[in-house]
Amino acid sequence: MLELAIARELYTRYPEAAEGELAKIRSHVVSRATCALVAHDLDLGARLEEAAQAGGIAPDELARIVKSRNVTAALLEAAIAALFLEHGYEPIEVAIVAAFSDRIDYASTTHVDHKTELQEALAKSGRAVSYSVLDVEGPPHERRFACAALVDGDELGRGTGRSKKDAEQAAAKQALAALAAPA
Description:
By secondary structure, this protein is α+β, with helices and mostly antiparallel strands. It folds into two domains: 2-109, Ribonuclease iii, N-terminal Endonuclease Domain, Chain A (Orthogonal Bundle), CATH 1.10.1520.10; 114-180, Double Stranded RNA Binding Domain (2-Layer Sandwich), CATH 3.30.160. It has nine helices and three strands; from the N terminus they run H-H-H-H-H-H-H-H-E-E-E-H. It has a three-stranded antiparallel sheet with strand order 1-2-3. It is flat and about 55 Å long. The termini are far apart. The relative contact order is 0.11. The model has no long low-confidence stretch (mean pLDDT 87).
C-alpha cells in the first residue's frame, strides 16, 4: 500500500519527471529510515510505549524497543496494513500521502542517494567504487558503523551511521565532495 500510494502521488505531482528520478525519490520515501521518521512524526513510539507498559514490559527493555528505528518503521508499516484491512485502499491513500508529504518534498528537492550519484559519476571515467566497513561499535540494538568509500583502492570518503547503508551513504557523500574539490 505504501509504495503504491507514494508512486501514484509522485506520478501525479511530477508528470514530466524521468522514470529514474521518480524511482530514486520513491525509494527514499518508502525506506526504513523515512518510515521511522514518519512514525516519529505521528508519535507512534509513544503509543507503542503506552501499549507496552500496559503489557508489563520492563522499562529498560521498553526504552530499547522504542528507540529502535527498525521497530518504529515496522510499527508504521503494520499500522498501514491494519488500516488497509479495515478500510480498504482508497480511504487510507490520502492519509498515507499526507503523512509522507514532507518527505516527498524533501526527497524531490534534496539529493538523497549519494551512493548512486558517486557510482554514476565514476562510471563516466571507467572507475568504480567499493565500500569497506572500518568499525562497528555498540550493542546489537544500537550499532554504529564506520565505512570508507574506496575509488581505485584510494579512500575518498569516510562516514558513520546507525546502519552499514547509512555509513556508506555518508562515505559516498564525502567522496563526491572530494571528487568535486579542485585538485
